[in-house]
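Hello Y.,

Per our agreement to keep a running log of every chain we model this quarter, I'm adding this entry. I've kept the format consistent with earlier entries: sequence first, then predicted structure.
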Amino acid sequence: MSLIMASFLFAALLLLVPGILTEKAYGPNPIELTIVNSISNAPNETYSTDIVFRGILLGAMRRLQQTNSDFKFTYTEDPNYGPFLESVNGVAGDKAEHTYWELLVQTGKNGTVIRPDVGIGCYIPEPNDRIILNFTKW
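Predicted structure for the entry above:
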């Protein structure tokens, strides 16, 4: 019986200690979103936003679009693969011209740029990640 009581006491203590299982530990985390046009060499555009703990990139992009009138994007929902980014700030990919929006991430940990194996609907950014939406050709 004392082992059970100790377990309940420990669980209750975790809920009371600041930063453990609370909003401080799991609250919004900053990320940067940079728009790069590798085809026209237009100046990069960088936006800052927050992402909730374990939140998907698509959610952060929607929040940014609602709070910043300079950032716009559209996507379609593929029944097999999920959200597919179509356009960013009025620039759309085109199958005939072989252009698309590529998702890259510069990690906040060591600055390495990676190409995630998932898209905007599944990618879960880490705090201080720099999300790069790169308009390019295939």
